[in-house]
Amino acid sequence: MTLLVISPDYASHLLPLASLGTAWRDAGERVVVASGPATAGIVAGFGYESAPLQLGRGSNPGVIRAEKQVAEEGDSLRGFFAATREGMVATLRYQARERLTDLMWNPVAAARATLDIVDRVRPDAILIDHLAYSARLALTVAGIPHGDVVLGHPTALPGPGEVYGFPPSWPRAFAPSAEDLADLRALCQAVDAHFTDEWNRAAQELDAAAPVSESAFSEHGPLVLFNYPAELADPDRPVPPSVHLGAALREEPREPDVEEWIARGEPYVYVSFGSFLSVRDDVLRRVVAALAAIGVRGAVASGSTPPDALGTLPEGWLVREYLPQVRLLAGASAIVTHGGNNSVTEAVASGVPLLVLPFSTDQFAGAAAVERAGVGEALDPNSASVPDVTAALARVLDPATRARVQALASRLRQAPGAARAREALRASATRRAIPSASPATPR
């Protein structure tokens, strides 16, 4: 059996998808990953075959820097970073406007390249990132069955009454005005209409008989796989036929110095704002100061912030641009995070309470879910002071919070995400074989 994994050229997207693929790899089956050059090292590290596929103008091998992107993408990133300092609504507005240009990058060419890879690889099953819109459009138009993996919060696939880019829920620390919310929702609706027009034009060019979509952001594959614990999802939110995978925990190579640091046995808190938002050195400094105030060791993935910009660091901390997140979560007392879906799901699956400081996209809905499930707290990163962070950390480190998240982790370990994905996709694949893509690729 051959599994084809399709991902944008971003480490934060490919890592969970590649982790899901281990269920096929460990069963002795072939795994081929279609992605860009920046993540080729990740593909090789998992022992997979590679099929070059460019699905966007940007890339991210693990830590993103605006100066290492093409000019347009670099400018977009700098604008995004600036917007996060203005606040949540400003950031969401900025991201909504950027979606007018960055989601359907060269859609017809990218779609045809995707179908060419399907023809060459001849997979028995396909896992694709839900946000790989051009590639997913290709599979949809060609009638190719696939597992549509929603890697973000489940609201990344909008449900009835929802609009992509407009958080349906907010953590308690945020109180946007009704006027700001109305303006943001109107902008997101306009973006939805524009994006749907793009989707439909590309679909018609690929196949004149392609059905017309009413809302492209709500389109999904025949099998939706939410890389998210069902226990954190809103039980009243309607979803299409789907499977909640829980989390895609990856194996990471053991690093001797990290192992030695963990083996000291002293409690520690893991801190990471992911591959993008580590640029917010001002927030990282406040977190570092709060940890120092309560006397807990920090393992800090500083990303694009140089360690010397974090202020005075206590003796014995582990501070590095990039750290093995899953390995460190295995022994952490808590995590301080921006609320990216990888961080949230990996922390929960590791039994680690969370302090979430969300900046953008679905991080707000994810932080609200953490609060609702009682496995952590959320603060506004732009307004939370050092005393605010210190007090929140003390509450997150409370044994009752840890007991709740460890009970949830125990349930998730009984059925790992990769095994759930393979079982669901195998059952789906038995109902319909993957056809040749050629008929839907007129030249």
UniProtKB/TrEMBL annotation:
Transmembrane segments: none
Superkingdom, taxonomy of origin: Bacteria
Organism: Naasia aerilata
One Gene Ontology MF term: transferase activity
A Pfam family recorded for this sequence: UDPGT
Ranges where the record places region Disordered: 423-443
Keywords: Transferase
Keyword Transferase applies: yes
PANTHER family the UniProt entry points to: STEROL 3-BETA-GLUCOSYLTRANSFERASE, STEROL 3-BETA-GLUCOSYLTRANSFERASE UGT80A2
Protein name: Glycosyl transferase family 1
